[in-house]
C-alpha cells in the first residue's frame, strides 16, 4: 500500500453568528473558530473546493467564503533580511571556537595557564 498525499485547501468562512458552527463541520475539518471576529478556518479537499464554496455561500448564516492564500506565500525566511546577524548562530560559533582552543592548546589557553602558575608562585614567595 502506497501513501498518497491528498491536497487540501483552507477556506475562511465569515459568519453572521456562531450559533450554527456545528452545521459547518459536515463540509470539512474545522481548524479554528474565532469568536470575536466570527470566522471559521475550514479545511476541505481541493478537488471538492468549488462545490463546497457554492454550498457554503447558500447557507443563510454565512456572510462570505474566501480561499486562503497560505499556499501562495513563500515560507522560506532564511535570507529575508539581508545582512542579518543571528545571535544564536554567533553563540554557537563562539562555543565551538572555545572548545577548539582548549583541545588544540591554543595561545589563549596556554597564556591562561601561565598566568595562573605565576600567580600561584607569587603567593608562595610572599609567605
UniProtKB/TrEMBL annotation:
One protein family per Pfam: DUF2129
HAMAP family tied to this protein: UPF0298
Keywords assigned by UniProt, alphabetized: Cytoplasm
Localization: Cytoplasm
GO cellular component entries: cytoplasm
Protein origin, superkingdom: Bacteria
Chief location: cytoplasm
Species of provenance: Globicatella sulfidifaciens
Protein name as it appears in the record: UPF0298 protein GX355_03610
Record InterPro entries: DUF2129
Record bears the keyword Transport: no
Entry's family note: Belongs to the UPF0298 family.
